[in-house]
Design goal:
6 helices; 0% strand; 74% helix; mainly alpha
């Protein structure tokens, strides 16, 4: 994937953020009384998982980076490969993707579905760009990490983490 200009990156970030915010707002107005309640309940479970995947990585990056001499978030000086980062490379982005699923489950409307799909595509593209940036910044250590931990497939990540633990 071609590296984005700073301007393109900002536009995609803003688009992803605004799609999520607007989808949440629109979902309150378009939610139908005949909505499938099961999807509503599934949405709450996914919301909890997404919230954990958003909050936990921020804490781990901050603590891990500070311990290695960095200044905090966005100043990684080493690969963080413990905890949730031993399961998926981009838990924060996975949490963000899950929030789009939540709004789709809650809203249950084609407009929200289209906004959610567009947002998911934006966040996935952002994660690809982040990966390129981390390869440039962290080099071979990050390349080894790429081979061991899946990007956002949490099920495969759990299986691989269990296999690594068993092999020790």
């Amino acid at each position: 994937m071609k590296k984005w200009s700073r301007r393109t990156g900002i536009v995609v970030w803003i688009a992803a953020f605004m799609l999520l915010v607007i989808a949440w707002i629109v979902s309150w107005y378009l939610t139908r009384p005949d909505a499938i309640r099961t999807l509503w309940y599934v949405g709450w479970v996914v919301w909890i998982a997404g919230a954990v995947l958003i909050i936990l990585p921020l804490f781990m990056i901050y603590v891990g980076s500070r311990a290695k001499g960095g200044k905090g978030w966005f100043d990684a000086v080493t690969v963080v490969d413990r905890g949730i980062y031993s399961v998926v490379r981009h838990p924060l982005y996975l949490g963000w993707l899950l929030m789009y699923l939540v709004v789709i489950f809650f809203g249950q409307h084609w407009v929200i579905l289209l906004m959610g799909i567009a947002g998911i595509v934006c966040v996935y593209l952002i994660s690809l760009q982040e990966e390129q940036r981390l390869i440039e910044r962290l080099g071979e250590d990050y390349m080894r990490y790429l081979q061991n931990v899946p990007r956002m497939n949490i099920i495969l990540g759990i299986l691989r983490a269990l296999r690594r633990r068993k092999d020790k």
